[in-house]
Write a structure and sequence with these properties.
about 500 residues; alpha/beta; Endonuclease, Chain A; 16-stranded mixed beta sheet; 19 helices; about 20% strand
Length: about 500
Amino acid sequence: MLVLNFDITWWLVAVLVFDLTIRIWAIIVIPRNRRPTAATAWLLAIYFIPFIGLLLFFLIGNPRLPRVRRRKQRQINEYIHDATENLEFGSLRPDAPAWFTSLVTMNRNLGAMPLAGDNTVTLIAEYQESLDAVADAVRAAEHYAHIEFYILQADAATDNLFRAMEEACARGITVRVLLDHWANRGKPNYKATLKRLDAMGAQWHLMLPVQPFKGKYQRPDLRNHRKLLVVDGNVAFMGSQNVTDSTYNLPKNIRRGLHWVDLMVRLQGPIVASVNAVFLSDWYSETDEELSAEFDIENLDTGPGDLDAQVVPSGPGFDSENNLRLFLGLLYAAERKVIIVSPYFVPDESLLLAVTTACHRGVHVELFVSEEGDQAIVYHAQRSYYEALLRAGVKIWMYRKPFILHSKSLTIDDETAVIGSSNMDMRSFGLNMEISLLVRGSEFADQMRAVEDRYRSLSRELTLEEWKQQPLRSTVLDNLARLTSALQ
């Protein structure tokens, strides 16, 4: 009996020492080079559930890409910056405000892409129209089609595009395809899609594959969330829409009657080279194949328009949160009006402060979100910010269910807008590889305003009075989700 007590005592001492060691280690290691909110969330997880929290931290606690991939990104940035340093990318519009010039300089320093003039940027707001427009562009290809989408599925809605790809391959056109591994692997048509890509002769690769037995591994919740297509360096598409049916072919979405609403842009002009550079950099990251010959920047065609545009890539391969800094710069520059469209709006402290500060400065601020949520944790985390936003004066518009407003855009005043793949949430800032397009020109801003007016007509306004009637259980869920959203 004495021996048993002795063993139990030492076992308890060992557990207590190990537990204390974990807590001390966490205080030293976790806050280093990490956002205070993320550090606090990880510390809470490890302090309340030390063993599980530690396991999760080792699994998903590093928000950076592996060192080899980060080195590749730096090499690509240096190459793009040096190659474009002394080149003219079209004629820029005159009388740019000082804040715009400094914002462009920041984007250039962080993401390497130059500002380009003489561009045409055309919005496509209809879901099937967008897929068919991309298919038409691929059918017109003479040299290559570069296709990169977070989710890419062969189904009835995308069949026109896949047939265009097949026809292009049959004509000897090089078709290169990138799709995110983790986002596609569980989708209904995943294997059929890969078989169809193989059968047509496309060159395809998975982005950010989590295949440890093949020597390919990084944090499993890192995603390449970009959506873009480039044909011959002459025309490009980018935005929020994936290549899939508007239900994503998921039974749970079909049962609930959910359909996604998205926004894409068709680009012509020198800016197409920047979109292509993003594809080429991702291709290099996944394949080690350099396609510098297709980064043709010395013979750029000017587009029929005269819009200024700059591509801003972002993600864990960069040292800074390029997209967040872009949004912050625009919010603080706004003088009259800010319109935000973000299906997942989970801001960090800096973004929340910028939005509410704009209201206090007298700027009219509107936020469009979905009435229905498709991701429970994100949906509740987003709701936890509504009261602070409403009290600051933000008008919140809720796009009516059963539609999921998936577009991502930010417009300020009368001539500046951003559109792309990036949500305004901590996942898009820290964990997703994104692409955003900064555009200056009242012509494009007018297109955006027309889309925003349409969204407004299909939404209902959430008021502070209505929000105060939320039941306690919803508040508890919202607050818990808000804590988990910071685990990066």
